[in-house]
Every structure is written in C-alpha cells, then in structure tokens.
# Entry
Amino acid sequence: MKLVNPANRRKHKVIIVGAGLAGASAAATLGQQGYHVQCFSYHDSPRRAHSIAAQGGINAAKNYRYDGDSIQRLFYDTVKGGDFRSREANVYRLAQISLNIIDQCAAQGVPFAREYGGLLDTRSFGGVQVQRTFYARGQTGQQLLLGAYQALEEQIAAGNVVMHTRTEMLDVALVNGRARGIITRNLLTGAIESHAADVVVLATGGYSNVFFLSTNAMASNCTAIWRAHRRGALFANPCFTQIHPTCIPQSSDHQSKLTLMSESLRNDGRVWVPKDKNDKRGPNQIPENERDYYLERRYPSFGNLVPRDVASRASKEVCDEGRGVGPNGRGVYLDFGDAIRRMGVEQVREKYGNLFDIYEQITGEDAYKVPMRIYPAPHYTMGGLWVDYQLMSTLPGLFVGGEANFSDHGANRLGASALMQGLADGYFILSATIPNYLATTALERVDASHPAFSQTKADVVQRLESLLKIKGKRTPDSFHRELGTLMWNNCGMSRSEKSLREALSRIPALRDEFWHDLCLVGTGEELNQSLEKANRISDFLELAELMCVDALDRKESCGCHFRVESQTPDGEAKRDDEHFSFASAWEWKGTGQAPVLQKEPLAFEQVHLTQRSYK
Ligand SMILES: Cc1cc2nc3c(=O)[nH]c(=O)nc-3n(C[C@H](O)[C@H](O)[C@H](O)COP(=O)(O)OP(=O)(O)OC[C@H]3O[C@@H](n4cnc5c(N)ncnc54)[C@H](O)[C@@H]3O)c2cc1C
# Structure
C-alpha cells in the first residue's frame, strides 16, 4: 500500500456515509490519521445505528480456549459456511484481522465478558466446532458501537471529523466517472445539499427490510447503495439473503417488526417440536420420548449449532409437516429446561438474562419456565455492492464497507461474523486502501459548484417532487407490506422457478401502482417521515426485482439461496460448482430494463470444494 505524507492528509476530504460499526470505525480511524472526514447518518446520533441491535457476539481466531482454533480454521469455516461462494483472499484477510479487532476493542474499554480468572470469555456460534465468539452479555453490538463512537467523538472534538446527523444521502455525484461527492437531504428542514470530497465511502448497512418484516431496525434501507448502483456501481449476489432461525414468531398481520433471539441461545437451548402433529399439549406436558429434537437427530455432529440456513430450513420443514407450535403453527420450541437443570437458573440468567427479558416483554411468557417459541425471519443480507480486494466498488473512488458490500460471507453468513467484518473493514482495511487510492490517483480539484453536482441534485429534487405529486390513496407502508409479503412468499427461505417468475410478473405492476396511487402528506421542505419512507420504498421496489432476477438466474442451491429444484435426496442445498462458481455482479440498465450480468469467477486455491455437511 502506498502512503500519504501526514502533511498532505489534511488536504484530502473523505465522505463516509454511515456511522454504524463499519462507518464509525472508518471515520474515527481516517480522522485519526489526519484526513478531513465528513460523516453522515440519518440517525440523530451514531449510537442509534442498527449495529446497536447486535446481540450475540463477534468472532476472532484467538484460540484462548486452546480448542484447536486458528486463522486457517476461521478462514475455512467461513468459506465453508458461505457454501463456497465467497472470495478466498478476502476471507483469509478477515480471519487474520480478527485478532487485531479484539485487541483494539478491548483497549478501547469494550466490556467483553470475562471468565472468573479475568481472561476474555468466549462461546459458540453456529457452523463451527470451536468457541471463538467474544461477547458482552446479549449487547455486544451496543458495546462495540459505544467503543467506535467514543473513538469517533474524539476525532470530532479534535476537528478531524465533522458529523452530519439527521442527514440522508440520496445520490452519488460523479465527476469524470469518479465518485466525488454526495447529495443529501436534511431530514429536519428538507434542505437538499451537495458535498464534495476525494473519496466516498458507503457503510450504510443491509437491505433485509425489503421483506418488510425483518429483524433489522425499522429505518434500515437500501437507498444509498441502490442509488450508487443506478449510477454504475455493480450490485453483487442480491439474492443472497439470510433468514435467521431464532426469531420471535410473527403474532399478527398488523405487526411491523420482528425481533431476533440471539443465536447464542443455541449454545444451551435445545430445539424441538412434538413428534406427533396432533399433539396439542403444552410443552411441559410433552414427555421427553415424544419430542423430536430434529436438529440433534439430523445433524449429530453440530446439533443445535448448525449454520443458520440449515437450521431455518429444518424449522420450516417441521412446520410444513404440521408439527409447528404456537397460535398459527409457525413456531418451534427453544428449550432451556436441560440447561437450567445442568447449570442452575442463575447461571442461565447471567449468560442470557437480557434476552429472556426481551422475550418476556414481547410474548408475555417466562422462558425460564416455558420453552421459547421461535421461527425464522429475514435478518442479514450477504449481497450488496460489488467491491474489489481494496473494498472499492466498480465506481472509482466509491468504497463500500460493512453489510453494505457483498462482503466475505458468500451465500450464508456465520453467526458473529458481521461485526467482525464491519470492524475489519472500518478499523483496518479502508484505513489502508483509501490512502493507497489517494496516493496513486491524480485527482483534479472539485467542489460542490461543479456542474455534476447541480445535475445530480436536480435529479434528486425531481424524484422527491414526483413522489409528492402523486396524491393517490395508498400509504407507503401498505406498498411496503405488500412487497414484503410477495418477496417472503416467492423469494424467501426457498425459491423456485415458478415462484420467482410470479414475483417478477407482479413487482413491476406493484411498482407502477406505487407511482400512481401513493398518498403522501406534507411537503418536502420540512420533517416528513412519510416522504422519507416512500423514497426508500421506491428503491426497495426496484431492488426486489433484481433480487428475483438474480435468484432465477442462479439455478443451483447454495447457502441461504435454496432453489427447490436443486436439492440432495435428503433435502439439503445442492450446489452446482461447474456452472455457478462465481459471484454475480449486476449492471443497472434502467427501471424495468433487464440488468446485465457480469461474473466474477471464484477460484479456490486453499480450500477444497466439498458438499457442505454438518451431520
Ligand atoms: C437483531 C440483530 C442482531 C445481530 N446480532 C449480531 C451479532 O451478534 N453478531 C454479528 O456479528 N452480527 C450481528 N448482526 C448483524 C450486524 O449487527 C450488522 O450486520 C452490522 O451491525 C451492520 O453494521 P453496518 O455498520 O454495516 O451498518 P449499520 O449498523 O446498519 O449502520 C448503517 C449506518 O448508515 C447510516 N445510513 C444508512 N443509509 C444512509 C443514507 N442513505 N444516508 C445517511 N446515512 C445512512 C445509518 O444512519 C447508520 O448510521 C445482528 C443483526 C441484527 C438485525
């Protein structure tokens, strides 16, 4: 990597959109290096980024347990967990950096759980046979975010970072094909503004809310990456979306949000359903020999800790057989009875207390006494903007970090690896690759008066005005809910050619209806949350189509992408390495126009491609 002389760094402006774990850590680190950083977030504080919701933990190959962990093993587990659809070199780098992340965060004062002797404690997550997950009770994301936020605040106080809260990026401005700035809307006043820089970083999170109901924060959306896609950044593997097996089941059609119960609970909780589908007794009345611990039965080596895609599909299958529990039969038990008998209720409370509290507040049930009920829900998106090894998109000067890029997780992310990846990107990778870009690129002086900005700004204003002008009858939420249901049913936990073709015929009609019958109140020159929402939904309505196109094109099953036509005799995902060993990177050609596929072949030199098995 080429370096930039310290005296020259302050001459460079870097825009970072997003102040979650990836964005805040990148902004703090680049600020500390001496760059002039402008950081943007639509939240009122970086502390409210969706990263705060992360519960379970963060992986690192420290091998503090002496249980056989190593960089090589974390690397291998991640490539295998992603069903051999990630880029080997990136994953190896991630495994290496995982060690530094824990040191960095511990030095910041992140209160990781410790063992009695004072050493950092770890626990297990799915898809691995070591204990490499560092955690802070069930609030790991919050504690890590506070660490990154403190580092960011230090740089704000030092004058190296300017923080723009309640400001939403609505487009990227390109000058001579390079990303040189962004157009934003001030969410309090409605003012549309231009900001110029030498480099733009998007760290804007994932797009699970395309499904309407998901475990993501209500405001999480795809607008930043989608608008960059429309300007030429390729979008990779959009159909790789993760359905998390342990969420609180949906209770009614009026619900607007789903809640995760951390995967860490599967360390001690056992998943089961009644053996007999007609068994309507309460869980505590069903004797041991009449319960089907189906994960332990089907996957004896990994048991309850199989990866998420495998656990989610298994839950769906038992519910489809009619053995699901709870009011609508869409639920399975996660039972702590054995753990309580083994460790005592106090130790269970110590490890998972806040998760049990969340569960009780939402369901009214005490999971120390009655097993939790859980069901899979949309949770994480492995797809995102395509990036090279330097984390730069196909738009020169536009870098992408955290969940917003197509990341290192292939077709399925292992638990506790998103925080690892977001912080690897922010603290360690972007802070090396951005200086390298600046040192090796001749950049002309550009400010926000450049004509490229006025043109892009006009496009943004025009789109907002078009939304406000429709004056139809349907609320933004009603469109979002309909789109989400359509996506869940047709491009959710399993997909078939038939379901995808159906979705592809219905999405354009729904989008058309949206642009003719949307009802918005208020104006653009004020705080207007329905305008914000509608604008984001307009992007989901385009992204959803690309997800289905991608899912239809990838005829194999891999990881979370389960094409019903491609399964092994025992119902597992069946890859087709001969024809699909590539990352799909899609090029935008216009609304309703067929996108163009570019393939990045995946070459595996270090790992041997195998049929994934957790039996
Ligand atoms: C309930 C839950 C629990 C989880 N638990 C774990 C866990 O235990 N371990 C793990 O590894 N992973 C976990 N994950 C996943 C992990 O939390 C996320 O992948 C990760 O935090 C994403 O971080 P990020 O920085 O990429 O994005 P985010 O935290 O989503 O931050 C996005 C930032 O971008 C800003 N932004 C977005 N769009 C715009 C725009 N257009 N203009 C301006 N600002 C914008 C937002 O304001 C925000 O600051 C969990 C996820 C969920 C939903």
Summary: The first strand starts at residue 13 and ends at 17.
